[in-house]
Write a structure and sequence with these properties.
Layout lengths: L64 E6 L3 H6 L6 H6 L4 E5 L7 H5 L6 E6 L4 E6 L7 H31 L3 H12 L6 H13 L16 H19 L3 H14 L4 H15 L2 H13 L4 H17 L3 H14 L3 H13 L3 H14 L4 H11 L5 H13 L7 H10 L3 H15 L3 H13 L10 H6 L17
Parallel strand pairs: 1-2
Antiparallel strand pairs: 1-3, 3-4
Helix pairs in contact: 4-5, 4-6, 5-6, 7-8, 8-9, 9-10, 9-11, 10-11, 11-12, 12-13, 13-14, 14-15, 15-16, 15-17, 16-17, 17-18
Protein backbone atom coordinates (compact mmCIF):
# COMPACT_ATOMS: atom_id res chain seq x y z
CA UNK A 1 0.00 0.00 0.00
CA UNK A 2 1.36 3.40 -0.95
CA UNK A 3 1.72 6.07 1.69
CA UNK A 4 -1.53 8.08 1.80
CA UNK A 5 0.05 11.52 1.75
CA UNK A 6 -2.42 14.34 2.19
CA UNK A 7 -3.14 16.67 -0.71
CA UNK A 8 -4.70 20.01 0.31
CA UNK A 9 -7.76 19.30 -1.82
CA UNK A 10 -8.75 16.31 0.28
CA UNK A 11 -8.54 17.94 3.68
CA UNK A 12 -11.13 20.72 3.50
CA UNK A 13 -12.19 20.60 7.15
CA UNK A 14 -8.85 21.06 8.83
CA UNK A 15 -6.19 22.25 6.38
CA UNK A 16 -7.02 25.95 6.76
CA UNK A 17 -7.12 25.63 10.54
CA UNK A 18 -3.90 23.77 11.21
CA UNK A 19 -2.97 26.38 13.78
CA UNK A 20 -6.49 27.68 14.26
CA UNK A 21 -6.16 28.38 17.96
CA UNK A 22 -2.76 30.01 17.66
CA UNK A 23 -3.10 33.60 18.80
CA UNK A 24 -1.41 35.83 16.28
CA UNK A 25 1.68 37.18 17.97
CA UNK A 26 1.77 40.92 18.39
CA UNK A 27 4.18 43.72 17.58
CA UNK A 28 5.11 46.06 14.76
CA UNK A 29 3.96 45.15 11.27
CA UNK A 30 3.61 41.39 11.20
CA UNK A 31 4.32 40.58 14.84
CA UNK A 32 6.61 38.18 16.67
CA UNK A 33 7.67 36.86 20.05
CA UNK A 34 6.39 33.97 22.22
CA UNK A 35 8.30 31.42 20.17
CA UNK A 36 6.63 32.54 16.95
CA UNK A 37 3.25 31.21 18.08
CA UNK A 38 1.06 32.22 20.99
CA UNK A 39 -2.26 30.68 21.93
CA UNK A 40 -5.72 31.97 22.51
CA UNK A 41 -7.97 28.97 23.03
CA UNK A 42 -5.34 26.95 24.85
CA UNK A 43 -3.96 28.15 28.15
CA UNK A 44 -0.59 29.88 28.19
CA UNK A 45 0.88 26.94 30.06
CA UNK A 46 0.08 24.62 27.16
CA UNK A 47 1.47 26.52 24.22
CA UNK A 48 5.18 25.88 24.73
CA UNK A 49 5.06 22.44 23.08
CA UNK A 50 2.49 22.82 20.34
CA UNK A 51 2.74 19.76 18.10
CA UNK A 52 3.45 20.68 14.44
CA UNK A 53 0.44 18.95 12.90
CA UNK A 54 -0.06 19.81 9.25
CA UNK A 55 -1.37 18.42 5.99
CA UNK A 56 1.60 16.93 4.16
CA UNK A 57 1.60 17.87 0.49
CA UNK A 58 4.25 15.45 -0.77
CA UNK A 59 5.10 11.86 0.13
CA UNK A 60 7.17 11.63 3.33
CA UNK A 61 10.88 10.79 3.04
CA UNK A 62 11.72 7.11 2.67
CA UNK A 63 12.63 5.54 5.99
CA UNK A 64 10.63 8.02 8.05
CA UNK A 65 7.52 7.41 10.12
CA UNK A 66 4.19 9.23 9.87
CA UNK A 67 1.61 9.78 12.57
CA UNK A 68 -1.77 10.34 10.91
CA UNK A 69 -4.44 11.98 13.08
CA UNK A 70 -8.10 11.81 12.04
CA UNK A 71 -9.99 14.23 14.35
CA UNK A 72 -13.62 13.45 15.06
CA UNK A 73 -14.78 17.01 14.51
CA UNK A 74 -13.66 20.61 14.33
CA UNK A 75 -14.34 20.93 18.05
CA UNK A 76 -12.23 17.89 18.87
CA UNK A 77 -9.42 19.23 16.69
CA UNK A 78 -9.44 22.59 18.45
CA UNK A 79 -9.57 21.26 22.01
CA UNK A 80 -7.68 17.96 21.76
CA UNK A 81 -4.78 17.20 24.09
CA UNK A 82 -2.95 15.98 20.98
CA UNK A 83 -2.23 19.63 20.17
CA UNK A 84 0.30 19.91 23.00
CA UNK A 85 3.02 17.38 23.80
CA UNK A 86 6.74 17.64 24.40
CA UNK A 87 7.11 13.98 23.49
CA UNK A 88 5.44 14.33 20.08
CA UNK A 89 7.20 17.64 19.42
CA UNK A 90 10.57 16.01 20.06
CA UNK A 91 9.76 13.06 17.81
CA UNK A 92 8.78 15.58 15.11
CA UNK A 93 12.47 16.53 14.94
CA UNK A 94 13.40 12.86 14.46
CA UNK A 95 11.68 12.19 11.13
CA UNK A 96 8.27 11.40 12.60
CA UNK A 97 5.88 13.48 10.52
CA UNK A 98 2.76 14.75 12.30
CA UNK A 99 -0.03 14.66 9.68
CA UNK A 100 -3.62 15.76 10.19
CA UNK A 101 -6.19 14.14 7.89
CA UNK A 102 -9.87 13.32 7.53
CA UNK A 103 -12.15 10.58 6.28
CA UNK A 104 -12.07 11.82 2.68
CA UNK A 105 -8.67 10.22 2.02
CA UNK A 106 -8.68 7.44 -0.61
CA UNK A 107 -8.91 3.90 0.84
CA UNK A 108 -9.41 5.41 4.27
CA UNK A 109 -11.28 2.39 5.66
CA UNK A 110 -8.34 0.15 4.81
CA UNK A 111 -5.93 2.59 6.38
CA UNK A 112 -7.65 3.45 9.67
CA UNK A 113 -9.88 0.42 9.97
CA UNK A 114 -13.52 0.53 10.99
CA UNK A 115 -12.85 2.60 14.10
CA UNK A 116 -14.74 5.82 14.58
CA UNK A 117 -12.63 9.01 14.73
CA UNK A 118 -10.73 10.29 16.51
CA UNK A 119 -8.16 7.78 15.34
CA UNK A 120 -4.38 8.05 15.13
CA UNK A 121 -2.43 5.73 12.84
CA UNK A 122 1.33 5.24 13.01
CA UNK A 123 2.71 4.12 9.66
CA UNK A 124 5.91 3.81 7.70
CA UNK A 125 6.55 6.24 4.86
CA UNK A 126 5.51 3.54 2.37
CA UNK A 127 2.09 3.26 4.03
CA UNK A 128 2.67 0.07 6.02
CA UNK A 129 0.61 0.37 9.19
CA UNK A 130 2.46 -0.06 12.47
CA UNK A 131 -0.29 0.62 14.96
CA UNK A 132 -3.46 2.54 15.81
CA UNK A 133 -4.87 4.45 18.75
CA UNK A 134 -8.63 4.93 18.90
CA UNK A 135 -10.61 7.39 20.99
CA UNK A 136 -13.78 6.96 22.97
CA UNK A 137 -16.76 9.31 23.07
CA UNK A 138 -15.13 11.58 20.51
CA UNK A 139 -11.91 12.05 22.49
CA UNK A 140 -8.40 10.62 22.28
CA UNK A 141 -5.91 11.32 25.06
CA UNK A 142 -2.42 12.35 24.04
CA UNK A 143 -0.83 9.89 26.50
CA UNK A 144 -2.20 6.98 24.44
CA UNK A 145 -0.65 8.38 21.28
CA UNK A 146 2.65 9.12 23.03
CA UNK A 147 2.84 5.48 24.17
CA UNK A 148 2.14 4.27 20.62
CA UNK A 149 5.01 6.29 19.16
CA UNK A 150 7.39 5.73 22.09
CA UNK A 151 6.82 1.98 22.00
CA UNK A 152 7.69 1.74 18.32
CA UNK A 153 10.68 4.08 18.58
CA UNK A 154 12.14 2.23 21.57
CA UNK A 155 11.67 -1.13 19.90
CA UNK A 156 13.40 0.06 16.73
CA UNK A 157 16.22 1.73 18.63
CA UNK A 158 16.78 -1.45 20.61
CA UNK A 159 17.04 -3.40 17.37
CA UNK A 160 19.52 -0.87 15.98
CA UNK A 161 21.65 -1.09 19.12
CA UNK A 162 21.71 -4.86 18.72
CA UNK A 163 22.70 -4.38 15.08
CA UNK A 164 25.48 -2.03 16.19
CA UNK A 165 26.78 -4.56 18.70
CA UNK A 166 26.71 -7.31 16.08
CA UNK A 167 28.57 -5.08 13.61
CA UNK A 168 31.29 -4.41 16.17
CA UNK A 169 31.63 -8.14 16.81
CA UNK A 170 31.78 -8.78 13.07
CA UNK A 171 34.60 -6.25 12.73
CA UNK A 172 36.51 -7.85 15.59
CA UNK A 173 36.24 -11.21 13.85
CA UNK A 174 37.94 -9.71 10.80
CA UNK A 175 34.96 -9.39 8.44
CA UNK A 176 35.51 -5.70 7.79
CA UNK A 177 33.37 -5.51 4.63
CA UNK A 178 30.28 -6.97 6.30
CA UNK A 179 30.73 -4.73 9.32
CA UNK A 180 30.94 -1.64 7.10
CA UNK A 181 27.70 -2.55 5.30
CA UNK A 182 25.87 -3.00 8.59
CA UNK A 183 27.27 0.19 10.13
CA UNK A 184 26.38 2.27 7.07
CA UNK A 185 22.80 1.00 7.32
CA UNK A 186 22.68 2.33 10.88
CA UNK A 187 24.09 5.72 9.85
CA UNK A 188 21.37 5.98 7.19
CA UNK A 189 18.84 6.08 10.03
CA UNK A 190 20.55 9.14 11.51
CA UNK A 191 17.37 11.24 11.55
CA UNK A 192 15.25 8.70 13.42
CA UNK A 193 18.02 7.49 15.71
CA UNK A 194 20.87 10.01 15.94
CA UNK A 195 22.61 8.48 18.96
CA UNK A 196 23.24 4.98 17.53
CA UNK A 197 24.07 6.59 14.17
CA UNK A 198 26.80 8.67 15.79
CA UNK A 199 28.26 5.54 17.43
CA UNK A 200 28.13 3.73 14.09
CA UNK A 201 29.95 6.62 12.40
CA UNK A 202 32.65 6.34 15.06
CA UNK A 203 33.05 2.64 14.38
CA UNK A 204 33.26 3.28 10.64
CA UNK A 205 36.03 5.79 11.23
CA UNK A 206 37.98 3.10 13.06
CA UNK A 207 37.57 0.94 9.98
CA UNK A 208 38.89 3.69 7.73
CA UNK A 209 35.54 4.92 6.41
CA UNK A 210 34.89 8.65 6.91
CA UNK A 211 31.29 9.80 7.36
CA UNK A 212 30.71 13.51 6.80
CA UNK A 213 28.30 15.78 8.59
CA UNK A 214 27.54 16.56 12.20
CA UNK A 215 25.89 14.08 14.54
CA UNK A 216 23.77 15.86 17.13
CA UNK A 217 22.33 13.87 20.04
CA UNK A 218 18.59 13.31 20.28
CA UNK A 219 16.55 15.37 22.71
CA UNK A 220 16.18 13.82 26.15
CA UNK A 221 12.76 12.25 26.67
CA UNK A 222 13.28 11.40 30.33
CA UNK A 223 9.97 12.32 31.98
CA UNK A 224 11.42 14.06 35.04
CA UNK A 225 13.87 16.12 33.01
CA UNK A 226 11.16 16.92 30.48
CA UNK A 227 8.90 18.16 33.26
CA UNK A 228 11.61 20.55 34.47
CA UNK A 229 12.25 21.77 30.93
CA UNK A 230 8.54 22.48 30.51
CA UNK A 231 8.44 24.20 33.90
CA UNK A 232 11.21 26.60 32.89
CA UNK A 233 9.53 27.20 29.54
CA UNK A 234 6.21 28.01 31.19
CA UNK A 235 7.90 30.43 33.58
CA UNK A 236 9.60 32.03 30.58
CA UNK A 237 6.35 32.37 28.66
CA UNK A 238 4.61 33.89 31.67
CA UNK A 239 7.43 36.43 32.03
CA UNK A 240 7.36 37.26 28.32
CA UNK A 241 3.59 37.72 28.39
CA UNK A 242 4.07 40.23 31.20
CA UNK A 243 6.79 42.12 29.28
CA UNK A 244 9.54 40.90 31.63
CA UNK A 245 11.82 40.02 28.75
CA UNK A 246 15.14 39.58 30.63
CA UNK A 247 13.41 37.12 32.94
CA UNK A 248 11.95 35.28 29.94
CA UNK A 249 15.41 35.10 28.39
CA UNK A 250 16.79 33.65 31.62
CA UNK A 251 14.09 30.97 31.84
CA UNK A 252 14.32 29.91 28.19
CA UNK A 253 18.11 29.72 28.50
CA UNK A 254 17.71 27.54 31.61
CA UNK A 255 15.42 25.19 29.69
CA UNK A 256 17.93 25.00 26.84
CA UNK A 257 20.75 24.21 29.28
CA UNK A 258 18.72 21.30 30.65
CA UNK A 259 18.38 19.82 27.16
CA UNK A 260 20.54 21.45 24.46
CA UNK A 261 19.03 19.14 21.83
CA UNK A 262 15.45 20.35 22.33
CA UNK A 263 14.66 22.97 19.64
CA UNK A 264 11.70 24.56 21.47
CA UNK A 265 13.72 26.53 24.06
CA UNK A 266 15.96 27.81 21.24
CA UNK A 267 12.92 28.90 19.27
CA UNK A 268 11.49 30.92 22.17
CA UNK A 269 14.90 32.32 23.05
CA UNK A 270 15.54 33.37 19.46
CA UNK A 271 12.22 35.23 19.26
CA UNK A 272 12.91 37.04 22.55
CA UNK A 273 16.24 38.23 21.16
CA UNK A 274 14.84 39.16 17.74
CA UNK A 275 11.48 40.69 18.56
CA UNK A 276 11.45 41.69 22.22
CA UNK A 277 15.05 42.72 23.03
CA UNK A 278 16.26 43.68 19.55
CA UNK A 279 19.54 41.78 20.00
CA UNK A 280 19.78 40.49 16.45
CA UNK A 281 23.33 39.17 16.78
CA UNK A 282 22.19 36.73 19.46
CA UNK A 283 19.00 35.96 17.54
CA UNK A 284 20.99 34.97 14.46
CA UNK A 285 23.20 32.64 16.46
CA UNK A 286 20.17 30.91 17.96
CA UNK A 287 18.24 30.64 14.69
CA UNK A 288 21.30 29.38 12.81
CA UNK A 289 21.70 26.68 15.47
CA UNK A 290 18.09 25.56 14.92
CA UNK A 291 18.68 25.21 11.19
CA UNK A 292 22.02 23.45 11.64
CA UNK A 293 20.51 20.75 13.85
CA UNK A 294 17.63 18.31 13.44
CA UNK A 295 14.57 20.41 14.34
CA UNK A 296 10.82 20.07 14.10
CA UNK A 297 9.05 21.88 11.21
CA UNK A 298 7.59 24.58 13.46
CA UNK A 299 10.99 25.52 14.91
CA UNK A 300 12.57 25.57 11.47
CA UNK A 301 9.77 27.81 10.19
CA UNK A 302 10.23 30.31 13.04
CA UNK A 303 14.00 30.36 12.55
CA UNK A 304 13.70 30.88 8.78
CA UNK A 305 11.17 33.64 9.28
CA UNK A 306 13.30 35.40 11.89
CA UNK A 307 16.43 35.26 9.75
CA UNK A 308 14.45 36.38 6.72
CA UNK A 309 12.94 39.36 8.52
CA UNK A 310 16.33 40.50 9.80
CA UNK A 311 17.98 39.94 6.41
CA UNK A 312 15.38 42.09 4.65
CA UNK A 313 15.83 44.83 7.23
CA UNK A 314 19.57 44.73 6.60
CA UNK A 315 18.93 45.40 2.91
CA UNK A 316 19.31 41.98 1.30
CA UNK A 317 15.77 41.70 -0.02
CA UNK A 318 16.05 38.63 -2.31
CA UNK A 319 17.76 36.47 0.31
CA UNK A 320 15.39 37.55 3.07
CA UNK A 321 12.35 36.93 0.89
CA UNK A 322 13.54 33.43 -0.02
CA UNK A 323 13.97 32.63 3.68
CA UNK A 324 10.44 33.73 4.50
CA UNK A 325 9.08 31.71 1.58
CA UNK A 326 11.03 28.71 2.89
CA UNK A 327 9.46 29.36 6.30
CA UNK A 328 5.87 28.92 5.13
CA UNK A 329 6.93 25.90 3.10
CA UNK A 330 8.29 24.30 6.27
CA UNK A 331 5.22 25.07 8.38
CA UNK A 332 2.29 27.49 7.87
CA UNK A 333 2.83 30.30 10.39
CA UNK A 334 0.48 33.31 10.47
CA UNK A 335 3.57 35.30 11.51
CA UNK A 336 5.42 34.50 8.28
CA UNK A 337 2.36 34.99 6.06
CA UNK A 338 1.80 38.42 7.59
CA UNK A 339 5.37 39.52 7.02
CA UNK A 340 5.29 38.26 3.44
CA UNK A 341 2.23 40.47 3.03
CA UNK A 342 4.15 43.40 4.54
CA UNK A 343 7.02 42.79 2.13
CA UNK A 344 4.90 42.72 -1.02
CA UNK A 345 2.75 45.65 0.04
CA UNK A 346 5.88 47.74 0.49
CA UNK A 347 7.02 46.54 -2.95
CA UNK A 348 3.75 47.86 -4.39
CA UNK A 349 2.28 44.44 -5.24
CA UNK A 350 -1.16 44.59 -3.62
CA UNK A 351 -2.24 41.31 -5.24
CA UNK A 352 0.49 39.26 -3.57
CA UNK A 353 0.06 41.22 -0.34
CA UNK A 354 -3.65 40.45 -0.32
CA UNK A 355 -3.03 36.75 -1.00
CA UNK A 356 -0.64 36.40 1.93
CA UNK A 357 -2.93 38.42 4.19
CA UNK A 358 -5.76 36.05 3.28
CA UNK A 359 -3.62 33.04 4.16
CA UNK A 360 -2.67 34.53 7.53
CA UNK A 361 -6.30 35.35 8.28
CA UNK A 362 -7.47 31.88 7.23
CA UNK A 363 -5.23 30.31 9.88
CA UNK A 364 -7.01 32.27 12.61
CA UNK A 365 -9.98 34.26 11.30
CA UNK A 366 -11.20 35.38 14.72
CA UNK A 367 -7.94 36.65 16.20
CA UNK A 368 -8.09 40.43 16.84
CA UNK A 369 -4.50 41.06 15.72
CA UNK A 370 -5.08 39.20 12.47
CA UNK A 371 -8.29 41.19 11.90
CA UNK A 372 -6.52 44.51 12.48
CA UNK A 373 -3.65 43.43 10.24
CA UNK A 374 -6.05 42.55 7.42
CA UNK A 375 -7.90 45.84 7.92
CA UNK A 376 -4.62 47.73 7.57
CA UNK A 377 -4.36 46.52 3.99
CA UNK A 378 -8.06 46.99 3.36
CA UNK A 379 -7.63 50.65 4.34
CA UNK A 380 -5.32 51.08 1.36
CA UNK A 381 -8.18 50.37 -1.03
CA UNK A 382 -9.36 53.34 -3.07
CA UNK A 383 -12.95 52.59 -2.12
CA UNK A 384 -14.38 54.87 0.56
CA UNK A 385 -16.51 51.99 1.81
CA UNK A 386 -13.44 49.80 2.26
CA UNK A 387 -11.65 52.51 4.21
CA UNK A 388 -14.72 53.04 6.39
CA UNK A 389 -14.93 49.33 7.14
CA UNK A 390 -11.24 49.25 8.06
CA UNK A 391 -11.67 52.22 10.40
CA UNK A 392 -14.61 50.42 11.99
CA UNK A 393 -12.33 47.45 12.75
CA UNK A 394 -9.68 49.82 14.14
CA UNK A 395 -12.11 51.55 16.47
CA UNK A 396 -13.37 48.20 17.76
CA UNK A 397 -9.78 47.24 18.62
CA UNK A 398 -8.31 50.58 19.72
CA UNK A 399 -7.40 49.14 23.12
CA UNK A 400 -5.30 46.34 21.60
CA UNK A 401 -1.90 47.75 22.57
CA UNK A 402 0.13 45.23 20.59
CA UNK A 403 -1.72 46.18 17.40
CA UNK A 404 -0.88 49.89 17.70
CA UNK A 405 1.38 49.86 14.62
CA UNK A 406 -1.32 48.41 12.39
CA UNK A 407 -4.00 50.60 13.93
CA UNK A 408 -1.79 53.55 12.97
CA UNK A 409 -1.58 52.15 9.44
CA UNK A 410 -5.37 52.07 9.16
CA UNK A 411 -5.81 55.65 10.35
CA UNK A 412 -2.97 56.92 8.14
CA UNK A 413 -4.49 55.44 5.00
CA UNK A 414 -7.93 56.71 6.00
CA UNK A 415 -6.58 60.24 6.20
CA UNK A 416 -6.73 60.52 10.00
CA UNK A 417 -3.18 61.79 10.50
CA UNK A 418 -3.42 62.81 14.15
CA UNK A 419 -4.87 59.46 15.18
CA UNK A 420 -2.22 57.63 13.16
CA UNK A 421 0.62 59.55 14.79
CA UNK A 422 -0.88 58.97 18.25
CA UNK A 423 -1.02 55.22 17.63
CA UNK A 424 2.55 55.14 16.34
CA UNK A 425 3.72 57.05 19.40
CA UNK A 426 1.89 54.53 21.60
CA UNK A 427 3.56 51.68 19.74
CA UNK A 428 7.08 53.06 19.92
CA UNK A 429 7.05 54.40 23.47
CA UNK A 430 4.37 52.51 25.40
CA UNK A 431 4.34 49.06 23.82
CA UNK A 432 8.02 48.67 22.93
CA UNK A 433 10.46 48.70 25.85
CA UNK A 434 13.93 48.79 24.27
CA UNK A 435 15.64 51.30 22.01
CA UNK A 436 17.20 48.47 20.00
CA UNK A 437 13.69 47.44 18.95
CA UNK A 438 12.35 50.98 18.55
CA UNK A 439 15.15 51.95 16.16
CA UNK A 440 14.34 49.03 13.86
CA UNK A 441 10.59 49.54 13.87
CA UNK A 442 10.93 53.28 13.36
CA UNK A 443 13.03 52.45 10.31
CA UNK A 444 10.38 50.06 9.04
CA UNK A 445 7.67 52.67 9.57
CA UNK A 446 9.71 55.16 7.52
CA UNK A 447 9.67 52.86 4.49
CA UNK A 448 6.30 51.15 5.02
CA UNK A 449 3.91 51.96 2.18
CA UNK A 450 0.97 52.20 4.58
CA UNK A 451 2.49 55.41 5.96
CA UNK A 452 3.30 56.98 2.58
CA UNK A 453 0.89 59.86 3.28
CA UNK A 454 3.04 60.77 6.30
CA UNK A 455 6.53 60.42 4.82
CA UNK A 456 7.02 64.17 4.38
CA UNK A 457 5.11 65.15 7.50
CA UNK A 458 7.41 66.87 10.07
CA UNK A 459 5.64 65.24 13.02
CA UNK A 460 6.11 61.76 11.54
CA UNK A 461 9.74 62.48 10.65
CA UNK A 462 10.40 63.65 14.20
CA UNK A 463 8.57 60.71 15.74
CA UNK A 464 10.71 58.24 13.76
CA UNK A 465 13.98 60.13 14.17
CA UNK A 466 15.49 57.23 16.09
CA UNK A 467 15.38 54.96 13.00
CA UNK A 468 18.52 52.89 12.55
CA UNK A 469 19.02 54.05 8.93
CA UNK A 470 19.53 50.58 7.46
CA UNK A 471 16.85 50.87 4.76
CA UNK A 472 16.79 53.36 1.85
CA UNK A 473 14.28 56.14 2.42
CA UNK A 474 11.44 56.81 -0.04
CA UNK A 475 11.79 59.95 -2.16
CA UNK A 476 9.14 61.79 -0.16
CA UNK A 477 11.48 61.72 2.83
CA UNK A 478 14.31 63.33 0.92
CA UNK A 479 16.13 60.40 -0.69
CA UNK A 480 18.19 61.65 -3.63
Amino acid sequence: MKAPFLRPAITPLFVLLLVADALATCGGGGGGGTGGMGSGAMGAEEVVYQVPWQAIKTPPPAGSLVLYWYPASQNEWEKSSLRNSRTLSVYAQQCVTMAVANREMPNVETFIGTGKPPVVVLAQADGKIIGRAEGTDGKLNVSVVEKLVEGEMKQRESAIKTQLKDAKDTAKKGDKAAAIVSLKAIVEQKCLFPNPAKDAAGELKKLGVAIGGEFYPAANLDRSLGAEVEHQMMLGLAAESQDRYPEAEKRYAAALKLDPSDPAPRRYLGEVYRHQLGDWDKARVVFDAILARPSDPLSRAVALHGLGKMTIHDGNFPKGLSMMEASVAAFPLPLAFRNLAVYWHSEGDRVKAAAYTKQALALDPADPFNLVFAAAFQAGDTSAAAKAEAVKVAKANDNLMCASYNLAAIYAQAGQKDRAVAMLKRHFFDYERYDAVRSKEMMEARVDAVFSSLFADPTFVSLTSGADGKLPLPKKMGRR
